């Protein structure tokens, strides 16, 4: 009897534990253990020889400098477990005590997702009856997003790519690199434009970016993206790339553990040779992840825009994300949310919102991609020397945008990274793109959370590039943080007004806006219940965050940076209104209030109007093709000015590019 009673009690306790575990699974986020690798990033002063000696002393192998990050080295420790949920301990960990070691970080695996989706089997394609430009490539007549001139389908407006071609721009002398799972460099449509100097295998640590083949063709993604950009024209094979005379490279970096170091190496590859980096991947689009670049990748971005392309700045193009079905919001993705990237959205040929699309205020512009299963998709190169008519998602949109930017860079190779963004803002058009939230900001730009400033227009971009005058120096105004703690109650709005000056007491103040960043810290029992809006002094409202159904996290936001482009061209000074609304979901076990702990504004822009520079002479096309020696020999200066607007040095720098 005694044993029976104990057994029944044990069984009852196990049942209770099961019920508790099941209930907790609906109210708490799953535990995501960190996976530590046997690779380290180390910052060591004194050069490569010093780094090598320190590596040998502690049993590491120095794998070399991390990309172009000065004094940063990749150390490998063969006796450490390759993947572990525990950080490494042992004698080798004493390396941090070396005087020359300024910083060391064991690399952790970061979950990164390619931004295509698994569509239904491809539909048969109807070809338009005619085109005023003809190429003999097998799928040319079906490339609807280049020549949108048939009445059979719903395509109403193309991106004027052929207009740019007619003006003589095909991407010549521009280098584009696809950061992905490799590219099939010997593909019949790619080998002619393949550039080995713009390529690397980060996963295998060699120069060959060829993808790893398997039965499911898992690593097709990069090859598909590359074809959109630079597939050769008039070779009777597959398609015509939008920038079909550009040079194309590939970085194999997604076919293995992705770490901060892997990303930094990829983003900083050959920055004086590569003009445009195209990335169609990012953190998980699952509607519950908040993630972005870590310290090394952030440094790679900053180095790229400061020093890449002889100081004019590397161009980073990013797919905005495919989390629409998961109610994701791309403001929770620190890559698309960065001022250094050009975030690209998608539209179907009909101009309707694709089912996978995410909405956010950081999106700059839009190109075509797939929509519903019955909509036509993107045709491009595929693995094993093949061609596909099923490229999809924002994965297809980013390389399309990169190719159009390549046409603009051919028209004017002196464009800076900010010039490119200004030209995109000025030339993108709402057209037939269907969105309920189109609005005109105070500077006269139409803008939407779905599509940014609209559909890209290649001909308008190259025409603008031909006559472009460089925009004034970028200024950065870091306004003082509002640290008044406010309670966020369920079903209530927290409203905070900040009177910004644009740092008028500083000669490098901001009057005309480009990017606006809100840095915010919030504690909350269920992050997905929050929505956040920012209204500019001119009355333009940006939705920084929408409710996310699957985001059960209790972590809130800690110094997370939300970014909006919707105030582009507006005045910076005046009252900025932050509104936070808590919509408690049924999944929330307790209606515990959250807290807004602090928030601050970072205003990026200029003190002069970017398009009224009467002292500048209009640039002629003869001035746009200097030799490399002319470009680099004293022409480009970088003037660095730091703005301090509070008692704490926040370390934001502005960089002035002066053509003399």
Explain this structure.
- With 660 residues, the chain is of the alpha+beta class.
- The protein folds into 3 domains: 36-109, Alpha-Beta Plaits; 114-466, 3-Layer(aba) Sandwich (Rossmann fold), CATH 3.40.50.200; 475-609 and 626-659, Sandwich (Jelly Rolls), CATH 2.60.120.260.
- The protein has 10 helices and 29 strands.
- The strands form 8 sheets. It has a 7-stranded parallel beta sheet, sandwiched between helices. Strands 1, 2, 3, 4 and 5 form a 5-stranded antiparallel beta sheet that branches. Strands 19, 20, 22, 25 and 27 form a 5-stranded antiparallel beta sheet that branches.
- A hairpin with a 6-residue loop joins strand 2 and strand 3.
- Helix 5 runs parallel beside helix 6 (295-307), helix 7 runs parallel beside helix 9 (458-466) and helix 8 packs across helix 9 (458-466).
- The protein is globular and about 65 Å long.
- The model is unreliable at 1-8, 14-30, 118-131 and 613-660 (pLDDT under 50).
Features:
protease; 29 strands; disordered C terminus; 7-stranded parallel beta sheet; serine-type endopeptidase activity; disordered N terminus; serine protease; 660 residues; Jelly Rolls; Rossmann fold; 18% helix; alpha+beta; P_dom; Alpha-Beta Plaits; globular; 3 domains; 5-stranded antiparallel beta sheet
């Amino acid at each position: 009897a005694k044993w029976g009673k104990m057994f029944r009690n044990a069984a009852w306790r196990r049942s209770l534990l099961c019920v508790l575990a099941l209930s907790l699974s609906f109210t708490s986020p799953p535990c995501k253990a960190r996976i530590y690798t046997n690779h380290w990033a180390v910052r060591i002063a004194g050069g490569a020889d010093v780094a090598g000696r320190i590596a040998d002393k502690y049993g590491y192998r120095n794998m070399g400098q991390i990309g172009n990050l000065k004094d940063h080295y990749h150390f490998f420790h063969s006796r450490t477990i390759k993947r572990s949920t525990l950080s490494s301990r042992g004698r080798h960990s004493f390396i941090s005590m070396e005087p020359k070691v300024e910083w060391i970080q064991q690399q952790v695996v970061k979950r990164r997702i390619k931004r295509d989706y698994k569509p239904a089997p491809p539909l048969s394609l109807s070809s338009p009856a005619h085109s005023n430009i003809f190429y003999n490539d097998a799928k040319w007549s079906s490339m609807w997003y280049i020549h949108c001139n048939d009445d059979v389908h719903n395509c109403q407006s193309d991106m004027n790519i052929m207009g740019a071609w007619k003006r003589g721009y095909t991407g010549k002398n521009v280098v584009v690199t696809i950061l992905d799972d490799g590219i099939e460099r010997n593909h019949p449509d790619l080998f002619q434009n393949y550039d080995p100097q713009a390529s690397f295998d980060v996963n295998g640590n060699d120069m060959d970016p060829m993808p790893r083949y398997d039965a499911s063709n898992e690593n097709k993604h990069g090859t598909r993206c590359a074809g959109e950009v630079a597939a050769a024209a008039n070779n009777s094979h597959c398609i015509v790339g939008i920038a079909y005379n550009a040079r194309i490279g590939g970085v194999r970096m997604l076919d293995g553990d992705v770490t901060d170091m892997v990303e930094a190496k990829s983003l900083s590859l050959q920055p004086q040779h590569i003009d445009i980096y195209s990335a169609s991947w990012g953190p998980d689009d699952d509607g519950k992840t908040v993630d972005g670049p870590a310290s090394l990748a952030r440094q790679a971005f900053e180095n790229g825009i400061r020093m890449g392309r002889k100081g004019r700045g590397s161009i980073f193009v990013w797919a905005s994300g495919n989390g629409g079905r998961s109610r994701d919001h791309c403001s929770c993705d620190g890559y698309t949310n960065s001022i250094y990237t050009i975030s690209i959205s998608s539209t179907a040929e009909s101009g309707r919102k694709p089912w996978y699309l995410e909405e956010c205020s950081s999106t700059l512009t839009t190109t075509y991609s797939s929509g519903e299963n019955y909509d036509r998709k993107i045709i491009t190169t595929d693995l094993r020397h093949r061609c596909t008519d099923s490229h999809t998602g924002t994965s297809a949109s980013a390389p399309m945008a990169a190719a159009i930017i390549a046409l603009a860079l051919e028209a004017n190779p002196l464009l800076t990274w900010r010039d490119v963004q200004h030209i995109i803002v000025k030339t993108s058009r709402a057209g037939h793109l269907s969105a309920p939230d189109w609005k005109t900001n105070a500077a006269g730009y139409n803008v939407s959370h779905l599509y940014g400033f609209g559909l890209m227009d290649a001909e308008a971009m190259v025409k603008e590039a031909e006559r472009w005058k460089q925009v004034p120096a970028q200024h950065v105004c870091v306004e003082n943080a509002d640290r008044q703690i406010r309670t966020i109650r369920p079903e209530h709005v927290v409203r905070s007004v900040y009177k910004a000056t644009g740092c008028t007491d500083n000669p490098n103040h901001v009057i005309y806006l480009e990017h606006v960043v809100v840095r915010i810290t919030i504690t909350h029992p269920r992050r997905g219940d929050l929505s956040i809006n920012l209204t500019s002094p001119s009355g333009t409202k940006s939705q920084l965050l929408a409710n996310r159904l699957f985001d059960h996290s209790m972590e809130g936001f800690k110094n997370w940076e939300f970014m909006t482009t919707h105030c582009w061209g507006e005045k910076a000074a005046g009252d900025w209104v932050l509104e936070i609304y808590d919509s408690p979901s049924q999944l929330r076990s307790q209606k515990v209030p959250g807290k807004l702990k602090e928030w601050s504004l970072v205003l990026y822009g200029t003190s002069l109007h970017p398009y009224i520079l009467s002292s500048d002479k209009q640039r002629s096309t003869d001035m746009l093709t200097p030799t490399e020696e002319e470009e680099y020999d004293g022409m480009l200066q970088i003037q660095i000015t730091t703005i301090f607007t509070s008692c704490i040095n926040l370390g934001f720098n502005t960089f002035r590019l002066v053509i003399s």
